[in-house]
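The record is kept unedited without comment:

——
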Amino acid sequence: MSIVPDPNDVGSDSHDLSPIEERLPSPLARYRPQIPEQYWDAIRPFVYNIMADVGPVLDTERALELMSVLVRFGLWVWQSSGHELRRELVFDTALIEQCFAQLAPSLTSNALGTYRSRIRMVQRVLRELQDGSYRISHLSYQPARVLAPYTDKELIGFRSWARGQNTRNKRRDAQVLLGAGAGAGLTTEDLVRLRVNDVLIGRDGVVLCVKGRRAREVPVLAEWEDLIIEAVGDIESGRPLFGVRRTSYNNNAVSAFTARSAGRGPKPSLPRLRATWICTHLGLGTPILCLRRASGTDGLDGFNRYLSFVEEPDLAEYRRAMRTPRSIS
């Protein structure tokens, strides 16, 4: 495959809606993958038609995730397989496996499994739509596995891991990983796009200006600010905040770094650091709309799965909070 798109960025959305786009929820109709416009024009009818049938029963975040997988699959079919982009032709099991065998070198094993399962789910749903056996309950696209937050002891250990890296660049990347993950809840997509210029340091603390599809400003938790402040001290302007020598947006950069980092004990996972950040804010009573904004999510449903990790308030705290709720102003 000549180009593997990064489907996580959205470009311009200034065009008239086609009839098929009008059938889609607004966030899906505005979706623009970061691939050449002529490529998107070629595969967009295929992607939109599939999403018009499958997308309405998914929440927005999961529908966008599925859409990004369809972009990868559709682009591969259009560029590399020699098949027309017709659903009755391309959702063939052998063709699906051929696609992901070729994409495998550019994906982690977890991502490869996730992408394959989502395309196979679409394959099954489209088959059921055709023969009339489809039911919404058959759409077995389950939410992501719930990740437990790290304990305080584990987080202390990760600070030691960061300090123990054997080069300045590795120590800096380890600090950024912890500060951006546990301190700001960034995803891999967010982190690999940050540049040192996107870090604002002032009287209100440290703020990370995230670029891409989920562009936003995220204040860093005070206890993690020191790692970001120290890390940016000697990074040249315009360079990536994580992996200063990188020249491209590689979503595998984080996992590759932790895999080759020094230390024999457990190493931090960015998704679990994000889970830790979410649980920290839920436990602190951060206004939920502020947390939604900082996390880059469209809805509130994604927070529900973390509530089991958050300690229930005692009776006095419960009464106080309900009687005199804190203002976000």
Summary: The CA atoms of residues 84 and 105 lie 25 Å apart.
